[in-house]
Write a structure and sequence with these properties.
This is Phage terminase small subunit. This protein is mainly alpha-helical. It has 5 helices and no strands. The longest helix has 38 residues.
């Protein structure tokens, strides 16, 4: 990750923790102009992109773990004829759909990386 200065690092963290740029600016306690200067800076933009990528990878890992639990839940529902299956199946289906989307994204990224390597 890029070597950011104190205020830049504080703003980067705020950008990850807050849903809007305005809230991140307030949280980092910096001037709006300073924030937008950082957001135009290539080094800061790359650091923010990398930090967001790391967060997505962590979430993807958690989804993978949840996917196994979802499969076990589906199996429980299938085997338990007395359980109200609709909400549990729906939640499990949602987790599995996101897991599959994550897998598809990984596959697409791998293909893109291979294409980029071929062009280099």
């Amino acid at each position: 990750m890029a070597d950011l200065k104190g205020k830049q690092n504080k703003f980067l963290i705020a950008m990850l923790e807050n849903p809007t740029t305005d809230e991140a600016i307030e949280s980092a306690n910096i001037h709006r102009g300073t924030a937008y200067k950082y957001l135009r800076d290539p080094v800061f933009k790359e650091a923010l992109r990398e930090a967001r990528k790391e967060l997505v990878m962590m979430v993807t890992h958690k989804l993978s773990t949840a996917g196994e639990k979802a499969v076990l839940t589906l199996l429980e529902v299938i085997e338990d004829e007395e359980a109200p299956a609709t909400s549990r199946v729906s939640a499990s289906r949602t987790v599995l759909e996101y897991l599959y989307r994550s897998y598809e994204n990984d596959e697409l990224l791998e293909r893109i990386e291979k294409l980029e390597e071929m062009q280099s």
